[in-house]
Amino acid sequence: MCIESNGIAGPTVRPGVEHCERRIRLLTVAAPMIAPSILSADFARLGEEAEAVAGSDWLHVDVMDAHFVPNLTLGLPVVQSLLKATDIPLDCHLMIEDPARWAPPYAEAGAYNVTFHAEATDDPIAVAKDIRAAGARAGLSVKPGTPIEPYLEILREFDTLLVMSVEPGFGGQSFMPEVLSKARAVRRLVDAGELTLVVEIDGGINADTIEQAAEAGIDCFVAGSAVYGTADPAATVRALRAQAAGASKHLSL
Questions:
Q1: For the chain, N or C: smaller number of CB within 10 Å?
Q2: Per-residue pLDDT tens for 148-161?
Q3: How far apart are CA 12 and CA 161, in angstroms?
Q4: Quick one: 11 exposed, middle or buried, by C-beta within 10 A (0-12, 13-18, 19+)?
Q5: Residues acting as catalytic residues
Q6: In whole angstroms, how far apart are CA 238 and each of 19, 53, 61, 223, 250?
């Protein structure tokens, strides 16, 4: 159990991570976190698809606007409905333009973590503050070709860094191992006590690639078709978590 600064305790505890109620920041990560991506789920059965990954740490929701990325997926009304169908914390990844306008409503709706792209705004700190003020954790994402160095100083204002290991916009792409240098750089800062945030990766994560990412210092692994393309998604989540734990230098089961 964890305690918010105002002294309110929250009872929700999930594998590998201490959770409090949605307005409380994540404190520690002890075991690898798995976040199945509903981009690979059956959109006509999202409530059932959320139940199919029971035991997951987060449920990853890819929001695309057909402007920042060429694809169009879902938006706030679907997130609001999904929140009524599952108690798995929603990890909303906004691949959209103008996050200053559109990101806070996802936090207000009840999303646990709201991540936007560094490339989509000139003032990421202001957006992060608005997300937190609206009740969620704030995440920053960077595309594969975006260097992490210009953002290292501002990561203190964030709860999550999402490293993209494919180009954002479409599922099913191949993993890009060259982005792991970003994860290693941030992990060194976290281990040195200079940053406190979850290092997350999204794109091409499966049984063949998760160990590379775990060795690089990733905390949270987004997996889409690798989970929803199997006969037993919940069992696959457990297997991926165990596989990551075996390769990680800082996490274990």
A1: N
A2: 999 999 999 999 99
A3: 23
A4: exposed
A5: 62, 202
A6: 19, 10, 20, 12, 18
